Amino acid sequence: MSALDNIFASDPELAEKAEAAERASAPDIAGTFRNYEAKPGGGFPDALPDGWRVTCAVPATARAVAELFEAPEPFERDTEGEDAMAVDTGHNSVEVIIDGPDAIEMDFKQWVNGKLAHHCDARTFLSPPEDAGVPCRCPGTIADLKLRAKDERGPKPSIRIKFRVAHDPEMGEFCYKSSGWSLISELPALKNALAKVGEPALCRLVNERVQYTSKAGRDVDYQKLTVKVDKAFGDAIADEPHSGYSEEPPF
Questions:
Q1: pLDDT tens digit sequence for 23-67
Q2: Residue 240: CB partners within 8 Å, gap ≥ 6?
Q3: 217: phi > 0 → left, psi -120 to 50 → alpha, else beta; which?
Q4: Which residues contact 209 (CB under 8 A, 6 or more apart)?
Q5: Whole-model pTM?
């Protein structure tokens, strides 16, 4: 144990104050679920086929995630971002609570030298404030948008799905982020399914590995997000409290 651990162990009141201070400084998002990890030197990110990786800014949250998923201890990522702590859960399928269709957000962003240079909804600018509502002059089709983004002449999709972990909702709100073009076509069906539930829904967040050989003979291997909407979370609550996590739903 460190000197700090020793002090907190012998002074519960001080330890409680430290925990309160840590909670007060906690970010709005408890953590991010990732099925890809960026390379420190840039380039195409590395796929994570062996389970969701959860990154957190607060060490206590990372420890709670590791305990919930019975995963190895959190480790530090090679990143300049705030979410420097990471947990490899070992689970490719996780039960989550999505509050409704508004938890699914999408816009388009282009970053240049670490700064947001273009932010729109494919029709008008969303930021900066002085440009909000001004036509962005982006192409009208996904194919053309994708081509411009590939040539670094236009923005990429910025997709965010917010949720809570079903087995411990009190940990806070987590998110999944993607700039994947293929995910766009699946968002309307997901939003409609959540709207039909009409209240917070129990869903399954699946990190799916896709492998095939293209018509051109190229081997394709990537990670794909699949969100399966089950039922209203209120209808799924078990009679007995559940501790820990398993691949099978406790509800």
A1: 555 568 999 999 998 876 666 788 899 999 999 999 999 999 999
A2: none
A3: left
A4: 47, 49, 92, 221, 222, 223, 224
A5: 0.81
